[in-house]
């Protein structure tokens, strides 16, 4: 199974249930564990992921692919190059001060430079050759390009839906993110767990939600409640 259509080196990952996933290296090394294997130059052909089931690994790869795509689409370097090209076009189309000054002088000479002509020339220069306005236009364009925020919001919405799964799947993602050392996924799953806990109204509800069995006997729990009753 390939996770991307982009050209590049492909790594083979083997899940706990022996399924092989072919993944672009740029995607796979979102995992610090896999990145360390690659940087160590370990030529083992297939990288075994002994604790990650294929269903979970498929989801993990999807997460990594999404974040690689996001970074590539929002690469500031490409925006800077686009800005420079745009500025060059503006200059070529009529904002070259040298040619404008010469054109102004010729126009003044041909029109018998009197007071009214001189004033008109100055007005023309002010309206057509104001570098400040062009600079402001460029700055506004740069701000709009780099402060849109729609892509970031879209990614956040996607992440929220990604972790909105049943508790077993969420737990599997948590273990996989920890094992593979994918910080972005681990942090997002932990946040989701915290949000679920906040919605629970009691310790019993937390236990029921996550299938947690108490280590205490009913008598011990009652004793603890009495000891901390002052907290309420």
UniProtKB/TrEMBL annotation:
Protein family: Belongs to the SKP1 family.
Pfam families xrefs: Skp1, Skp1_POZ
Keyword terms of this UniProt record: Ubl conjugation pathway
UniProt-annotated stretches for the region Disordered: 90-153
Protein name: SKP1-like protein 1B
Domain SKP1 component POZ, first and last residues per copy: 9-68
Biological processes, Gene Ontology terms: jasmonic acid mediated signaling pathway; protein ubiquitination; ubiquitin-dependent protein catabolic process
Compositional bias ranges of the Acidic residues kind: 139-153
Annotated metabolic or biological route of this protein: Protein modification; protein ubiquitination
Domain SKP1 component dimerisation, residue spans: 184-231
